[in-house]
């Protein structure tokens, strides 16, 4: 629907605010970081036209916990909190046989945490990412182009708007997200 005020004048800057804006949590997994795919992955969401509102490289503290053993009890506690938090992130999967390997994989090195915003971003990001099994993922998708195995599928994307909000809340602290208006906004949407 066209957006106008009482005078009937078209106000394009109000259109975006009328749309259902969604958020999704996208994460380049440790294999994506190690293989130097971070730029390519970010680029696909940027070029599509979604808005980046949060971005950080995050070193999963498992190595730290293994290295510091029991003397550094605070860090070890931190590690346990982190594991519980990962279990919360993957709460639908923690009864699956591959769950311990999944945690091992996700904590095996730095990950790139991202929050992206836009109308329809959750489902669209899932399409850009492709099927869970990279061999089934369509060419042109991230997994279809860049991966060969489910256990090394380079990227995570939230599966619903509710989980998008939930996961952004888990992975980002208050103050780490940035609200801004991209200069290209008027060239992306009428
Ligand atoms: P998606 O990441 O496509 O939303 P799921 O939510 O089903 O897929 O699974 C979450 C992650 O768990 C996958 O991306 C993958 O890293 C891992 N995973 C899922 N199924 C398997 C499996 N059969 N073997 C190993 N890892 C798996």
Kindly list the characteristics that best describe this protein.
190 residues, alpha+beta, Alpha-Beta Plaits, 4-stranded antiparallel β-sheet, 10 helices, 15% strand, binds adenosine-5'-diphosphate
Give an overview of the whole structure.
- The chain is an alpha+beta fold and 190 residues long.
- The protein folds into two domains: 17-59 and 109-179, 2-Layer Sandwich (Alpha-Beta Plaits); 61-108, no CATH class.
- Helices cover 44% and strands 15% of the residues.
- The chain has helices spanning 12-18, 30-34, 38-48, 62-68, 73-89, 99-106, 121-129, 142-146, 161-171, 185-188; strands at 21-28, 51-58, 111-119, 155-157.
- The protein has a four-stranded antiparallel sheet.
- α4 packs antiparallel against α5.
- The protein starts with 11 loop residues before the first helix and ends with a helix.
- The relative contact order is 0.21.
- The structure holds adenosine-5'-diphosphate.
- Residues 93, 98, 102, 132, 150-151, 153, 156, 159 line the site of adenosine-5'-diphosphate.
- Belongs to the NDK family.
- Its cofactor is Mg(2+).
- It comes from Citrus unshiu.
Oligomeric description of these chains: single chain
As laid out across the biggest beta sheet, the strand order is 2-3-1-4
CATH superfamily of the largest domain: Nucleoside diphosphate kinase-like domain
> What class do helices, strands and sheet pairing give?
alpha+beta
Low-confidence region ranges: 1-5, 64-73
What's the helical proportion of residues? 40-55%
How many strands, which pairing sense, and closed or not: the largest β-sheet? 4 strands, antiparallel
Supply Rg: 19 Å
Number of helices: 10
CATH topology of the largest domain: Alpha-Beta Plaits
Domain count: the total is 2
Q: N-to-C SSE series? A: HEHHEHHHEHHEHH
The rough form would be described as globular
> What is the overall pLDDT average?
85
Keywords: ATP-binding, Kinase, Magnesium, Metal-binding, Nucleotide metabolism, Nucleotide-binding, Transferase
Subcellular location: Mitochondrion intermembrane space; Mitochondrion matrix
Cofactor: Mg(2+)
Family: Belongs to the NDK family.
